[in-house]
Amino acid sequence: MPLRRITLRVNGATYAGEAEPRKTLADFIREDCGLTGTHLGCEHGVCGACTILMDGQTVRSCLMFAVQAEGAELTTVEGLADGDRLHPIQQAYWDHHALQCGFCTPGFLMTTVEFLNDNPQPTEREIREALAGNLCRCTGYQNIVKAVAAAAHTLAAAPGARREIGTAAPPRAANVMAAPRKTGGPPGASHRPRHSGKTAKRRSGPKR
Q1: Structural domains in the chain plus CATH codes
Q2: What is the pLDDT of residues 30-43, one digit of tens each?
Q3: How many CA atoms lie within 13 A of 3 on its CB side?
């Protein structure tokens, strides 16, 4: 299968590389960009572990091909912190013990960033609906809900600390990637990640 040239921006840096048209965006981010914070769980768009931000909106990177992201501005979990200083949402997850194994956490964080940008003063019900498309096998969700509420309070109390997605990290020098080797929530959730291109439709997770 012929390779396609891809150029996109991730966390303020430009990445260029070559990939087969069938390669997923999640695999391109992890393997070609070297950003392994984006995790792959179900690879069917159900669990939410691979959630990133594309042009400011959440997408399931396992359901997109890398070639569909040509020219897009992406933000992954690595782009949230400012050096050693955690983003207020990351800090809230830390403070409220909203993670255990941490595998699902990057997807929760990226979902929370978009959600609080859209709804800075959410109710508990709205928080639960917003997180309905992300699955966690460890925490029971209660502390995650608490963390999102605390982050909302922090961001509302200190508007200067709030950072809209897409400007998370200062631009860095361009990274030119070498060509890769050829290789063979509960129902009723109202806050859904949006997808670009022809991707599979995500299903809701089990009721919690």
Answers
A1: 4-79+166-176 (3.10.20.30), 88-161 (1.10.150.120)
A2: 999 999 999 999 99
A3: 13
